[in-house]
Structures are given as structure tokens and as C-alpha cells.
Amino acid sequence: MPALAANSRKRKPSPSLTQESQPSNSSSSSLSAYQQSTITDHFSPARSQSPSSTSSVHSKRSRMNPPASKSVTAKKGTPVVTEATMMDFDTGEPTDTPYIVPPPLIYRPKPPRPPSKGFLLRQAGARMLDVKNLRESRKGCSEKYFDMIWKTLEPALEAILAREKIVGSMEEMYRGVENIYRFGKAQELAELLTKRLDDYVSTQMKPKVMQEIKDDDIETLRIIGFAWRQWSEQLGLVRLIFLYLDRAYLFHRQSIEDFGIAVFNEHILDTADVSKKVLNGILTLFKQDRQSDGKTSVDHDLLISSMRMISSIGLYYTKFEPLFIETAREYYARLAGRESQVLDLTAYIKECVAQIEKASAKCGEFNLEYSTKRELILVVDAEMIGNYVALLTDKERLRVLLSREDTETLQTLYRLLDRICDPGKALKEGWEAYIVDQGTYIVQDKDRGSEMVQRLLDLRGTLNAIWTGPLKKNETLGFSLRESFSVFINSRKEASIKENPKPAEMIAKYVDQLLRNGIKNIPPVAGVIHTATDDDSALAHRLDLVLDLFRFVQGKDVFEAFYKKDLARRLLLGRSASDDAEQLMLSKLKNECGACFTNNLEAMFKDMNLSRESVASFNSTKVGSEYFRKVELHVNILSQAAWPSYPETPVTIPSAHAQHLEAFAKFYTSKHQGRKLTWRHALSHCVLVADFENGRRELSLSAFQAVVLLAFNEVPGVGTLRYRDLKTATGLSDPELKRTLQSLACGKMRVLLKSPKGRDVFGTDKFQVNAGFTAQQYRVKINQIQLKETKEEIKETHERVEMDRKYETQAAIVRIMKSRRTIKHVELIQQTIEQTKERGNLDVTSIKQNIEKLIEKDYMERGEGDTYLYVA
């Protein structure tokens, strides 16, 4: 019966067009029986079956790969399928299920169908054939083919293991392995292969390796490494031939590579503690590399190849990594203990950074796994940083870094601490101690009290630059910075004035200096980057820095008293550098302390504006205009409640000027009924026009200086006046007259000449006008010694602040008692402190004293226990 050949890749026959072929006789008798065998000969149970003519439907793979041997045809146009054509199977993606080549397909004529009824009645036409797949046994054929292929593979395998040249085509061997797999003989082939590999390692490789192994661990590592490299090469060649078996049959089983590693471990590494010596050799090489520090050569190639070996054979994670981390821990513990004792903080920090960088570099150099690198870096951090946090944050060592402003080392220290803990908490204690010590030293320095604010600004600027830079704006350290400033600035609790000035007082004086002289002559603040483009913006920025210090001051009433006093002088003497700057400072104080704090200050500016309006109104009158043509008069009318109190200093004003003042007073009282003007000449100033031999000059003087110089107008020519004559003419007291004469006759601009010469003024001295006085400027300012603040005036200011604080405290106590009626002692103290905290820091002792005074004045009385009762 003619046979019909189908595509071998299909499980079921394709319904493609079939073609009948004529039977054919055998081909030329010169061909061997092997060459004349057909598909039917290989796969039919009986080889004696007569050859049949076939019609071949070739696959794409068949067309691409022509048969290795010549095709034989029985008759012209009728191809004979040879063994070479039959063995050219498709090499598609292998699967675990062995592929079974279907037997030849035959066809049989189907019996005629009975005629169907209905509209589906079968019409007459071509006859239909049913093609069925008849499976026939091919066991005998596959066994012979397997034996034939193995005879080809075995010599090649032996040549590979003997490291000799392979005889034959590796591609044909690969095809043979593939065909064996397709015949379902993969298991037998895998068993033969694994048995041969196991026998080679156990009987040939192992004795040679064991014979060469010595007691030296590094030499043992070198021998095992060489053996492994050879074995790896051999496994690679074996796998090339048996690749189809490895990918298809062994895909979900132990691969050839895994089997080779297993037998190498079993017969070599697990024998006589070889693996232990290998690991010890690797660890010894790492130890030598650490200790050499790059000065002596270490066999890097051996170390790198050894790491590859233990990674391949599976010893890396199970045995090597734990031992490596443990030895590294011991090494870095010894290193940290030694270096911490001989190095200073800066050098030890650099050593920590160097060891971290070296550890990371070595991991990359020797191809260590990422998990090992991570664990190694953690070991370095723990041993060199974590165990020495106390050393790294030592107060004295940290003080050295901060005092030197070593920002690079501080930044490195912060990063090191950030690797193992919260750097803010670790550095907080030493950071606070340095700030408090430095600030306390500045505040309590009696010799440099005038530089207190500038030094505090420099300290604040430097610390802020360190905090924003190396310390990464750590919140904990930022809070400690503010708290530390608050501690040392308010550490001097002085109820009354002593020899040293307080921070609140000096801050007020520093602001006065800024507002009088501007920013040009003020030194810059350390650590602050200047971005201002003009003087006004630079002054505003400096005021912001000063207000930053002012926020830490608890005694704001002291600041207010001195600021108000200095503001009065600037307004009355016209010494403000900028009216805009004055208003800017006032608005900043209002935002910081509230409207109540600046009420009196705003009233002072209001008085100055009203005064200018009153003087202009007076000069517009007939009387005022007549006086104005002779003397320009400017009067500042001050409300007593808003301005500081000034003592009434007796002085005799020349009659012409006295009449002018009386005319203005009469005009003002006529406009404002019920008001009374009291003249305070201590802060008055004027400009006199004087004619000297070298020309006319304008002299800017105080009222007392002007009165003294006008007294010489009553003396003809360049006359001389004695000290007692000037005292009679001016009516000034001795201290005031001596300071005035000293400024006129003993300063740089000597308008008067004193006889005898000297720096001090005595009651027997004589004075005359310096007719030869000269100066480059037309208007000359004479230093006014009496304007300098004396210790007595400072003491009076502090005493006035203390008195105001007592009154405020008593008022707060009365308000609390009036609202509560009955209150316990502790609650009264706490609420009093709470209500007066904006004005200053009160002592409990001072509050108790004020409670006793109120009890004496019958505002309150004691109740049972520790309670107080309000008396209506």
C-alpha cells in the first residue's frame, strides 16, 4: 500500500493536499544497504518489508538543511528518503516531554456513507479518504542508533577529560545528542555522562590534586584554583557537545555544570579539610592586603580567581562570607583601638574615612558580592565609629574643632556620626558646652565690655555658618544654639548697676551707634555673607542681626530704658544717620515686642513733629518773625510721660536770647491752656558764627559751650577771663563748667587758650579767645564732653528700671488678687512671673518683697495656711 509522509513536527496529520505516487523498485545495487534504508526501514517492526514508494512533504527545516549523503531514487521523479534526511529533525525549543516521531501515515478508502436525509443530502463528487496514524514499534532501531552515537561521543568525552584534541565534528556530536533525546534515550545518555564525569574526578583528578597539596594554605589555594580552572574548561567543552541534553532533559534536573561542581566538592574540597585550607588561604591573602596598605605586593590575580572559584562552587555565602566578616571585625576593632590612642580627633576622623573608602574599593577590586560589601561597611562603621562615639563627641576635642572653625573636619564628623546614630543628639552636649562657655566669657569680660555686642554677633554668625554648613541645619543643634544663647545672655542677674554693663544695655548702645553713624565704620560680622548693595540695606540687615540677639534678652525693660535715652539724644541733637532707619527700627521693635513696648517711642517722634509745627507757627507771627531775623530758634516740646527725665541744670542765658525764649513760651501757653513749659538746657545745642583772624567759622556747640563763648563778647578785644569770672557769668556748677572749659580749651579744636597749659581745669586758670584759630571746614564741631554718659547716669538708669519693675510687679499682683480674691502663694508667684515675663526676668525674692509691701499698704492680707486674701 502506498505510504504518505507527513511533517514530523505535527502530532496530528495536516489536512494538506496528498499525492499518490507510483510504486518504485530498489535503487542501484552499488549502494549499500545502509544507504538504501528508508524511513519505513527504520521505524517498521520488520525490516524485511518491501520498500514502498513515498510522497514526501518536506518541512522548512528540511529545505534549509540538505541531507549529508546523496539521495537515492528508485525511479525518475520518485525520491527515496534516506537516513540522513530522516535524521534532520527540527531543533525547536526543547521541552521536558520526549518528542516521539510519528510512524508513517497510511490511507484507506472510506466506506460509502449512507445517504442522508434532508437538505444536507450529500452530493456526488470526489471520493474521500480517512488518514490514520499507525504507531509501530521502533525499539530495536533506537537502541542501535543510541549505541552508534555513544561510540562517537565517548571518545570525544575521553579526549576532553584527557585534555587532548577532539577527533570528529562537534556539530555532528551535538546532532547525535539531540536525536538521542528525541528517541527518548535522554535518561540513559545522562546516566552514562554523569558516571564518566564522576569516575574521572574520583579516580584521576583527585589523586593528582591530593598529591600536590601541602600544609601551606596559600599554596593549597593555588593548587585547588588551578585544578578548578582546568575542570571548568573541561566542563565547558562537555557542555558544548551535550548542550541539547542540558537544556532539554536536564533543564528541571541537575545541570551538567551543577553536577560538575557537586563532584568537585565531594571528591576534592570535602576531602581532608581542603575547603578549610582554601578558605584560610583566601582570608590570609585579604589579611596581607589590609596590612600591606599597598606597600607590598599581594597576589591579586590569585585572590580574584579564588573569589570566582568559591562563588561558582557555592562556598561564598555558606562558608566564606561569615568568616570574612568575622575576621574583618577583629581587624577593625584592633585598628580602631590603636589609632584612637595615638591620633588626635582630626587625624582619627580622617582615618575612619580612609578605612571606609578602602573597604569599599577592595570589594570592587576583588569582585565581592554586594551583600558582603554592605556587611563590611557596617562592620567598619560599628567598630571605628559606633564604639568610639564618646571619643568623637568629646567636649574638649570638639571645642578645638569649633574654635578653629574647622568646617571640613566638622562636616566629615557629622557624616560619620550620621552613619550610625542621630548626629544631633550625639553632638548636642559638646555643642551646647562650647556655646555657653564662649558666650559667658564674652558677656563677663570687663575689659572689653564695649565690644560685647560685636563679639556676640561674630560668635552667632560663626556658629550659624557652621550649623547651616557642616551640620546640615540639624534641628536638634539649631534648637540648642538658640537655647544656649538664651542661657548665657541672661546669666548675669544684677538687680542694680555694677561696673560691667549688661547685654541688654550694650545691645541698646550698639543700636544707637548704628543709627548715629551708619554702617560704614562698623566692622563686618564674622560668618555672614554680605549681599547688600547699598548702605540702607546693609544697615537694615545689621539691625536684623542685632534683633536676633535681642530676642534672647529677658530684661527687655533695661533695653527699653537705654534705647529710649539714646533715642532722645539722637532726636534732640539731630544725630540720626537716617530717619528711615529710625522708623525701620521702631517697626521692628513693635513687631517683636508689641505696641505697648513702643508707645512711648512713637510718642517721642510725634512730639518732634508737633514741635516743628509749633515753631513754624510762632515764626509766622509778628513777634516771632522779628526774633527770627536775629536768631533762628528751634524748640523741642517734650511730653514728660514719654521722654526720659532730665535734671534741671542752672545756667544763665544771655538776656537777648532769654527774651526770645520767654516770647515763645508765652505764645505756646496761649495756644495750649493749662500747660507749662520747663526749660532743660542740658541737651540744647546751637551754632555760633565767629570771626577769627583766618576767617569766619561756624561753631557747632552745646548750649553750655555757647554761653561760655558769648561771655567773651562782653570783654573788649582779646580779653582774658578768669575761671571765677566765667562761673559768675554763666551760672554753671563747677563740674559742668570744668567739663565745658576742658572741651573748649583742651581738645583738638581749641577755641579758647588756657593759662597755664594743661589737660585739667582748675579754679585759678585764665582763659582767652584763640584769635588764630583755624580749621579746614567752614562748620566746626566741638566735642561735647558733657554728652558722654557717666557711670552715675548709667546707675541712675538702672535704678529707674528697677523702680519701674517694682511698680509693674505690684500692679500685676494687685490685678491677680482682684480677679482671684483668694489665691495660694505658689499660684500667685507663678502668675506674677507669667504676666511680667515680657518686661524682664523677675526673681522670686523680689516678688515676695513686693507682696509684703502690698500687705503693709493693706491691698491684701494673709489667710489660713499659705493663702492670700484681697482687701477691697
Automatic annotation (TrEMBL):
Statement: the UniProt record of this protein carries the keyword Ubl conjugation? yes
The UniProt keywords, alphabetically, are: Isopeptide bond, Ubl conjugation
Source species taxonomy = Eukaryota, Fungi, Dikarya, Ascomycota, Pezizomycotina
What are the GO cellular component annotations?
cullin-RING ubiquitin ligase complex
Gene3D superfamilies recorded: Cullin Repeats (1.20.1310.10), Cullin, Chain C, Domain 2 (3.30.230.130), Winged helix-like DNA-binding domain superfamily/Winged helix DNA-binding domain (1.10.10.10)
Under the GO molecular function aspect, what terms does this record hold? ubiquitin protein ligase binding
Comp. bias (Low complexity)? 16-37, 45-57
One GO BP: ubiquitin-dependent protein catabolic process
Classification via Pfam families: Cullin (PF00888), Cullin_AB (PF26557), Cullin_Nedd8 (PF10557)
Cullin family profile domain sequence ranges: 502-745
Query: Which family is annotated?
Result: Belongs to the cullin family.
Cite the residue spans of the region called Disordered: 1-79
User: What's the protein name?
Assistant: Cullin family-domain-containing protein
Q: Which organism is it from?
A: Sphaerosporella brunnea
